[in-house]
Specification:
single chain; Protocatechuate 4,5-dioxygenase, Chain B; 17 strands; nine-stranded mixed β-sheet; 35% helix; globular
């Protein structure tokens, strides 16, 4: 079955284990020791949403999710991410038996992946695409670090279930969520949802700006050569922007991301799907987020426990505060869910 190499080590993050450990410790040390009235990790926070860019960009933001992550009861860890390397419809499973990190190898839970494969609803990741994909790999050093802090001995580390979640309709996301909800109900299962938020710039074909009293996407004109598409965004610019009459581009980006994050925190899968569809926000992990939200809704119906099952965002950052239309940025957000 083989081991998937840590293909992004040495470029997207430190390849030397000691240097990498120091880097992750530094990021984690920047996060407060308590959040929302709880000492970290948050008890029962066995689902997190975290970014997957190079660590120099998104590492400090991801630390907020990972320091909140409660792995104390984990016997297996699902890792859901989007596919950047090939077009994928639906969900795909790895065919490797191990994933390499600079710290050591994480074991794939073949019993669970085989069980999922038998449903007939999962394809196999092409091995070359699996190796090239960063959305899963970027979480594994952080996961190792938190497992080390939680369990100490690598022989006690739970196995992982890497899943790529590709393009899907709202109903298809609900279907995947329902299928995976039985695993989410298991208190010994933890989840990592990999996603960056708004990708702004010509390279991403997404450039919403404030113009003529509305937020307009210059790169999505719906076939109108002379007009940009108006997005359904109506914030109170008096609080959302330093200059309400002329919001900066980075302020527009923040408003778009806040709409998406508010929809996630609502706990409504349909609301999140609607907001992303209408604003066309380039949330690259929107389908993994959609699947876990659909699964959380199934669990919430069965349990109806107050204060559980809804994501809580604890950090939001951007790679750059865009002011000019030729510039670009990627947004990062971290959240946890008590299940």
């Amino acid at each position: 079955m083989g081991t998937r190499e840590a293909s992004h080590a040495g470029s997207w993050y430190e390849g030397d284990d000691e240097e990498l450990s120091r880097q992750l410790d530094e990021f984690l040390d920047r996060v407060p020791e308590s959040l929302d009235g709880n000492t970290l990790p948050i008890p029962g926070a066995r689902v997190i949403i975290a970014p997957h860019a190079g660590y120099s960009y998104s590492g400090p933001c991801a630390a907020w999710a990972y320091k909140s992550f409660d792995l104390s009861s984990a016997k297996r860890v699902f890792v859901l991410g989007p596919s950047h390397t090939y077009y994928l419809r639906g969900c795909a499973l790895t065919t490797f038996e191990k994933y390499e990190t600079p710290f050591g190898d994480l074991i794939v839970d073949k019993a669970t992946t085989n069980e999922l494969k038998k449903t007939g609803r999962f394809s196999d990741m092409p091995r070359g695409s699996d190796v090239d994909e960063h959305s899963l790999e970027m979480h594994l050093p952080y996961l190792w670090k938190r497992l080390e802090q939680t369990f100490g001995d690598p022989s006690k580390y739970p196995p992982i279930i890497p899943i790529l979640v590709g393009n899907a309709s709202e109903e298809e996301e609900k279907g995947w969520g329902e299928l995976l909800s039985k695993y989410l109900k298991d208190p010994e299962t933890a989840w990592i949802i990999s996603s960056d938020f708004c990708h702004w710039g010509t390279r991403f074909s997404y450039r919403p700006v404030f113009h003529e009293g509305a937020v307009r996407d210059m790169d999505n004109s719906r076939g109108q050569a002379s007009k940009s598409a108006v997005l359904p965004v109506s914030p109170d610019w008096s609080t959302a922007a330093k200059d309400p009459a002329s919001p900066e581009i980075h302020e527009v980006i923040k408003v778009l991301d806040q709409m998406a994050m508010d929809a996630v925190e609502s706990g409504s899968h349909s609301e999140f799907y609607k907001v992303v569809r209408e604003t066309r926000n380039t949330v690259c992990g929107r389908h993994p987020i959609g699947v876990i939200m659909a699964a959380l809704e199934v669990v919430a119906k069965d349990r109806s426990e107050e204060g559980k099952g809804k994501p809580k965002f604890v950090q939001y950052q951007r790679s750059n505060l865009v002011k000019k239309t030729y510039d670009f940025s990627v947004s990062y957000a971290s959240a946890y869910v008590v299940v």
